[in-house]
Amino acid sequence: MRNSMIPSETDYHCHLLPGIDDGPGDTGTSLEMARLLYVAGYRQVYCTPHLIKGMYEASREEVLEARAKLQSELVREGIGIKLLLGREYYLDEFLMDLLATPQLLEGTNYLMVEIPPQTSAHLVKETLFRLCRKGYIPMIAHPERCPLLEVQEQGTHRPAWKSWLSKGRAEEPEAPRGSYGLLDYLSQLGCQFQGNLGSFAGFYGGQVKACARQFEKTAIYTHLGTDAHSPEAIKSMLALH
Question: pLDDT per residue over 179-225, tens digit each?
């Protein structure tokens, strides 16, 4: 049975390109993943390989070449999925230096960012504020997996954030009543939030699953993605057997 959380024909977060990061190691595995996504109803997939200094550092050219080769194979195999490019940037002290030529989610002004669990709220605020000042819209990957992001009991609030963003300060504006924490700050900043389908399937434990359900309930998510790294993960989260 198809997962009820699939909202559209677009997977906004997937590690589909072979040999780039911790996703599939070869083209055959990528094709198997693509077939499963196609059967599930996806027609566009954002390939968002990790970019982590010292770990996953594939160049822009390498990613472009991998996408072109895999797209050709999809056409050859009759798998009707269009591959779009992005990157999953790791929010650390090296991030800003890696953005000389950023890989936005293709066709958008979104920059996908993963917030590591060990980072500080201060670094998150300062970095994402600077990204917004550059004109990018940060898309937070799987926020339900980030311990820094608290659940808002009364939903998110989106005031006119551009007025204070333009002043060049990263200070938080006065918090609206009924909201609190870093999650609310990022919402006011204009960030987007991408949920993982695997979180709803319990891939990351009960606490993350409960958080994902709460984020869904309070309409925090703006986009969803599989964040798939393997055929087995896709089969499990989409209940395809």
Answer: 348 999 999 999 999 999 999 989 999 999 999 999 999 999 999 99
Residue 103 main-chain phi, psi, to 5 deg: -95, 95
- Collapse the DSSP code of 73 into the 3-class scheme (helix H, G, I; strand E, B; otherwise coil) and give the result: helix
Q: How many domains does the chain have?
A: 1
Range of the domain at 32: 10-237
Q: What is the pTM of this model?
A: 0.86
Domain with residue 232: its CATH number is 3.20.20.140
Find out whether 157 and 176 touch, Cβ atoms under 8 Å.
Answer: yes
Distances (CA, A) of 118 to 123, 171, 201: 11, 22, 24
Helix (H) / strand (E) element for 47: namely strand 44-47
Q: What is the side-by-side strand order in the sheet with 137-141?
A: 50-51, 88-90, 110-114, 137-141, 192-196, 223-225
